[in-house]
Amino acid sequence: MSAIEIRGLRKSYRVYQKKEGLWASLTGLFHREYREVDAVRGIDLDVEQGEFVAFLGPNGAGKTTTLKLLSGVISPTVGQARVLGHVPWERENSYRRKFALVMGQKNQLWWDLPAQESFRLHQKIYRIDPTEFDRTRDELVDLLEVRHLLGQPVRELSLGERMKMELTAALLHSPDVLFLDEPTIGLDVIAQHNIQKFLKHYQQQRKITILLTSHYMKDVAALCKRVVIIAHGDIMYDGSLAGIVDRFSGHKELTLQFADDRMPSDLARYGEVLEIVEPKARLRVERGSIAEVLSAVLANHSVEDVSVEDPPLEEVIAEMFALTADQSRESRDANRQPAQSVTQSS
Amino acid sequence: MHPSYLGVFLTFARNSLIRDMTFRTNFIIEAISSVSWMIMNLGFYTLVYQFTPSIADWGKYEFFVFIATTMFINSLVQAFFMPNMQELSELVRTGGLDFALLKPIDTQFLVSLHRVNWSSLGNFFVALLLLAYSLPRIEGLQLSPWQYLLYPLYVFLGVWILYSVMIGLAATSIWLGRNQSLYDFWFYITNFSRYPMEIYDGPWGTPLQKFFTFVIPILVVINVPAQLMAKPLIDADWWLAGFAILATVFSLIASRWVFKLALRSYRSASS
Amino acid sequence: MHARVATWWTILKICVEERLVYRGDFALGTLMRFLPIVTQIFLWSAVFVAAETKGIKGYSSTDVIAYYLLTMLARAFSSMPGLATGIARQVREGEIKKFMIQPIDLVSYLLLARIAHKLVYYLVAAGPFALVYYLCRSYFPGWPTPEVFVVFVCSLVLSFMLGFFLEASMGLIAFWFLEVTSLLFVYMLFTFFFSGHMFPLDFLPEPWSTIVDFMPFKYMAYFPAAVFLGKVEGPEMWQGLAIQTGWVLLFIVVCRRMMHAGYARYSGYGG
What we know:
heterotrimer; B: mainly alpha; two-stranded antiparallel sheet; 12 helices; 76% helix; C: 74% helix; globular
């Protein structure tokens, strides 16, 4: 049985259609026009026990909404989901004891108190056995190297330290499923790396199921074998990280280093010139014609060094988002008229 | 398996105390300010009793018992519920409510009690002193053990009625999403409860009295325990004491219903 | 053509409706502020009934109610919500630097902002005030003489200035003590009790009535109301207005002095 099963999950909500101008905003206080927005539009997904899956997508793609749906904070408009056999939005206490949600932009620890006091509160709320609680907490704070900070008020901790405390709090009840929403947002490189290392270790040891959303491709590359890309509420891609490049990028990057003073002036005929720093040049070449181009270059010029690489992942993904944004705008425009008339009549 | 609600509540109380103690000066200022506010109020009524022997059949010391009751109930409401209700709209705005919804514990319990404002209990002790000072000075008052038993009970019921009104209003503002001024209603509405119900008399007063007794039962909050203590209930008033129990149960059920409704709309409206 | 006119008409109607609803909401909030007066009316009616008297220190029962209604108006001029705490916050968070480098000083800027704020408020609140005063017209003794009315209006404007400069001075103390919450609380307590907002100051016994005469607070609520009701007449009235002006001038000077001293102290510390 899959740990997480999602079928046709859809969430739409009404947003206030704000208009410009003082008059409009004054009148808008009372008579508001709303528009239906789909945050998630009918997604299907299965995640097996022990998988570490990344959700990628631009802001507003529906990643956080999906995590909130799966944790039962909000109810879907239509569709089904089961996590560990529970329907999340039924919010049974037995389910709520089995998962945790960590949001990088929000904190749930008491701001003015030392983290250990919030942990104790967690123990009471989740009814964790005291010896079990001590053992788990000690293990976590040692792994995250924050034991010495337990007695300091949370407001005095750095962002990275605070995130570690948030993670500790979330894992105290040893959840089977963990939802991480941008856990490394705003952290410096070292703190990011520490959190990644911890998550990787913890997940491998416990074989828990983790869904992670992140903007940092490094998080994803370090942690997840499987990547799900969401844009505009739809799943665009589901597979390995390497597969993204194969699937979405039709190009390779060719770097050539020419012999002294032999820089050719007509490089553009081989492909799109990205950068020239003599004696090097970087070209973008269609995947299918790379062999052809390479042999032509080698035949016509004296080249000292050659490398052929996939374009950087960030670029591929950005390109893909731009592409899907156009597509979805078209499909939305086509649907807009009927959707709006429904709203106004209701 | 249910979480231990008492255990969680004690941890809330403990954490709040630790927090209050880290901001000690603030704590002391708050305690002093709420006490001096009440003392000023007392000064006002002392002044009024210079000009009259009684107000609506409440003699000076009987009225002081009334004020002491007000202080007991208000200090309890302010200590346990007020800071949480004020924070509720903040929780909705910042998304902190999401975390409350995840916890394997009743959400209304969690958002209603997670912070305790210890400094507000200062008035509780002033009220004790005031009660001890006034009771022996009421002429012809014979206190029976029943009164000592029922008084705390009715104070307690009063606290629950006020809590219901408060969470009902707070939940309604989540529900409507925009109306902040709803919360201000609380102060204006509860203002009516701070006077003996007998003063609401005449063509305007009687309907007002009925409204705040039977529709929004805030007049029973202080009046019932205060009468019970200062003017041992005459026969005609026993029905009011019975009604107070009914009103408490009803208010709690109604406010719970409103709260659930508000959460449901929060769940379907946010993304 | 006909269709177009119909459309315009519809749009116009909707806009007017929306406007009215908006006004309605704000006006409702202002009307709510009169609710505490309702309880005061009942309380004082009960007092006058029990005391079996026609007047307390020269106030009849209708006078007392008219007095409360008039102090509401005076407080609409003299109360400055958020002014002192705002200044204290700006000092604490260093925002004050902005005013030290701009060609406008803090106090002038805040005064202008406050005047704008009050003007908008009066514009919207005028309706509710007029409505309440009209409904309660039987409590008023009738229109005063033009002379009294001029003094009344002057004292309202002066009470605005007094309220502003007094509270701004309180806020400026933040340059010396960062935590001014307790001071502000004492200030609030004093204004509430000694401005006459809670009861007509004539009711105070000695030595309090003399003490109150030597404080500026009574010019923020009591004085304008007393002038209107004819409780202060003739030369005494003009003398009161002169003293009020004196207080205003004094606090303008104090406020400016404090601001400059505060700037000097602030820059001396290096921000």
